Amino acid sequence: MPLLEIRDLIVLYGEIEALRGVSLTVEEGQVVTLLGANGAGKSTTLRAISGLARPAAGEIVFDGKSIAGLGPEAIVRLGISHVPEGRRIFPGLTVKENIMLGASNRRVAKSELSREADAMFDLFPDIRQFSNSLGWTLSGGQLQMVAVARGLMAKPRLLLLDEPSLGLAPVIVQAVFRIISQIRQNTTVLLVEQNARMGLSVADHGYVLETGRIVLGGKPDELWGNEAIAAAYLGGHAKVTA
Ligand SMILES: Nc1ncnc2c1ncn2[C@@H]1O[C@H](COP(=O)(O)OP(=O)(O)OP(=O)(O)O)[C@@H](O)[C@H]1O
Ligand SMILES: [Mg+2]
To answer: For the ABC transporter domain, which residue ranges apply (predicted)?
Structure first.
């Protein structure tokens, strides 16, 4: 049984059909990358999984249970953590307090959470120096690291990452992807990326989304060399070759 299975998912924003029948599968222990141009429906797919967007039709099955239509808090409690687009770090809190917020789904003593948050800085050494300071000024890459660390504090079975490399300098993108390849050792990840090369470099499986539909899916080396990928990223229409 896959950890996550989405079948024929439809999501509407008013008149706009953002998802027009998306089906995809994430096996436990995998990193699955969802690729697609601006507006393809990548974020909406993650928002539907985490309960932020309500499906008009279709099924979302997590660990054998239907979760379509549940609210975000219930879904976090089941073990799904969403690191959304944009970084939403609270400036009035320290970096460590921001990270600890990610554990709001867990009933664990604050001292234990504090210890776990400190341990996060082993994975994200670049932000350790800001741990306890207020009035920090962080770079885009550092903010992204805080956001990912916060997502991991939920101890999710499934981590949803929305464009973690967006707007980052190439060397920082590499650092973020090094972290993803460490995370994958004990967490299943559904990763949204526009950077196909980086996104597929850490993936077991990839899907290409175009205007609300999956047009292609396969292992990274099956997707590479497929004209449809190039077409999707050049803004053209990918041919369905499956
Ligand atoms: N809150 C909203 N209200 C109305 N339409 C929306 C809303 N959010 C997204 N859309 C529309 O739904 C479609 C899918 O958007 P979505 O944000 O899922 O795309 P995306 O693949 O994540 O794009 P990007 O790469 O730009 O982040 C687009 O046509 C978008 O304009
Ligand atoms: Mg998006």
So the answer is: 4-236
- 242 is a domain residue: no
Report the domain count for the chain. 1
> How far does residue 162's CA lie from ligand 2's centre (Å)?
7
Question: Which structural domain, as residue segments, surrounds residue 137?
Answer: 4-233
pLDDT, tens digit, 9 for 90 and up, residues 54-96 = 999 999 999 999 999 999 999 999 999 999 987 788 989 999 9
Q: Which residues surround ligand 2, an ion (CB under 5 A)?
A: 42-43
Answer whether 39 contacts ligand 1 (Cβ < 6 A): yes
Instruction: Answer whether residue 238 is part of any domain.
Output: no
CA 1 to chain centre: 21
Specify if 213 maps to a domain.
yes
- Burial of residue 174 (CB within 10 Å: 0-12, 13-18, 19+) is middle
pLDDT tens, 116-162?
999 999 888 889 999 998 878 888 888 988 999 999 999 999 999 99
- CATH number of the domain where residue 195 is located: 3.40.50.300
The reply to whether 161 falls in a domain is yes
**Alpha carbon separation from 215 to 45, 107, 209, 240 (Å, rounded):** 14, 41, 6, 6
